[in-house]
């Protein structure tokens, strides 16, 4: 493996930073301590530092020469509202807060790349190191874009990575085009007419109506979408009634929808809305449909995904880079940045054994999860090489 020796020499220091952030996890838009560490480190390395973007977001900038070319690298800093079950020394010090998605590792890898790039300056142009808040559900990436991230820090291309426990450490997985799903969540309120449970003929039953809507919704994916267009529609909650002998006034259905294109998203939204209204109407009830957008699908630029795969191949070899990896039904708010600037998102393997702390690898969002410190130098090397290749001194000459 072709790890940058300078970065490999910082492995211990990077591990210390990663575990310190892991022990002090902070929720979305509350990453005060973490962003203070990031800003302090970046200043120490000699970067220009801008704080307070999307509340706790930080951007570090390194300029070499006067080439107008610029690359953005992004990491996320927030933790999850969940209880950590690990007992190692760097386990979360806070109840109900945990770095269960490895954003502590993403932040540390980007710091490693920043230190390397600031010291070696082996490129021509500008690199913006983007540390974003609130990836887990609150759309910190969207807020940064809305607050003018790319007007203040224009980038020709942007890159980010996510650790991936189901992929062996030392491997990368990417795909051109749509890679992670876009999401929507829905609330459907069925309004009937409450009555005595023994006299259904005097009311309109929202429970039976909701059950029919839930069943009919399952035909949306199987009967109205192309089999080549992956979509998931899950009803995850049905709430109605409080008594054995009362037919309630209302019933509520909730759940999630995942798909890979804006067109699929609009198609599912329209079909589900129609089914809910007309199914309710068939029973004499009424449906109030509220389908809210989550993150958009994450779409890798074909050229930049190929470029990233080429750079990864130089580091770990072709046999360790899956260029046409599977689509993933999870979502990521880096998708908002990719809507603004072409770029690519890659999965960094961190599984297949024990992590740096001797901890057995498990899935992200699991209470026993830990980022694998073994891959810190690899992720930092990939970030650094992306900049050196994109802004190569040869190309500028
Ligand atoms: Zn997550
Ligand atoms: Zn994550």
TrEMBL record:
Cofactor(s) it depends on: Mn(2+)
Note describing how the cofactor binds: The Mn(2+) ion enhances activity.
Keyword list, A-Z: Hydrolase, Manganese, Metal-binding
GO function term, MF aspect, one: hydrolase activity
One matching Pfam family: M20_dimer
Superkingdom, natural source: Bacteria
Peptidase M20 dimerisation domain segment(s): 182-278
Presence of keyword Cell inner membrane: no
Membership in a protein family: Belongs to the peptidase M20 family.
Identification of the protein by name: Hippurate hydrolase
Highest classification ranks of the organism: Bacteria, Pseudomonadati, Pseudomonadota, Alphaproteobacteria, Rhodospirillales
């Amino acid at each position: 493996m072709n790890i940058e020796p300078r970065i490999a020499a910082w492995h211990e220091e990077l591990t210390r930073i990663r575990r310190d952030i892991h022990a002090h996890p902070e929720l979305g838009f509350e990453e005060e301590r973490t962003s203070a560490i990031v800003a302090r480190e970046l200043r120490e390395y000699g970067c220009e530092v801008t704080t307070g973007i999307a509340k706790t977001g930080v951007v570090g900038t390194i300029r070499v020469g006067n080439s107008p070319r610029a690359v953005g690298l992004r990491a996320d800093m927030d933790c999850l509202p969940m209880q950590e079950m690990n007992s190692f020394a760097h386990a979360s010090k806070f109840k109900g807060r945990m770095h269960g998605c490895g954003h502590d590792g993403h932040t540390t890898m980007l710091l490693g790349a920043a230190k390397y790039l600031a010291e070696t300056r082996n490129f021509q142009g500008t690199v913006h190191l983007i540390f974003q808040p609130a990836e887990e559900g609150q759309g910190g990436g969207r807020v940064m874009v809305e607050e003018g991230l790319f007007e203040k820090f224009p980038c020709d291309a942007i890159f980010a990575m996510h650790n991936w426990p189901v992929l062996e450490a030392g491997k990368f997985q990417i795909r051109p085009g749509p890679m992670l799903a876009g999401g929507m969540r829905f609330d459907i309120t069925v309004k009937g007419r409450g009555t005595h449970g023994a006299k259904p003929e005097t009311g309109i039953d929202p429970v039976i109506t909701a059950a029919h809507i839930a069943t009919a919704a399952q035909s949306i994916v199987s009967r109205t979408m192309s089999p080549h267009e992956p979509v998931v529609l899950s009803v995850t909650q049905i709430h109605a009634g409080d008594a054995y002998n009362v037919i309630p006034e209302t019933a509520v259905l909730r759940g999630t929808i995942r798909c890979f294109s804006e067109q699929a998203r609009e198609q599912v939204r329209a079909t589900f809305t129609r089914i809910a209204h007309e199914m309710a109407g068939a029973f004499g009830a009424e449906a109030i449909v509220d389908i809210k957008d989550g993150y958009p699908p994450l779409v890798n630029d074909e050229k930049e995904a190929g470029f990233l795969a080429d750079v990864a191949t130089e580091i770990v070899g072709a046999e360790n880079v899956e260029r046409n990896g599977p689509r993933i039904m999870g979502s990521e708010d880096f998708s908002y940045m990719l809507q603004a600037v072409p770029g690519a998102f890659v999965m960094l393997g961190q599984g297949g054994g024990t992590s740096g702390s001797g901890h057995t690898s498990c899935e992200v969002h699991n209470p026993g999860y830990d980022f694998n410190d073994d891959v810190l130098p690899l992720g930092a090397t990939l970030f650094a090489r992306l900049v050196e290749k994109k802004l190569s001194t040869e190309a500028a000459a």
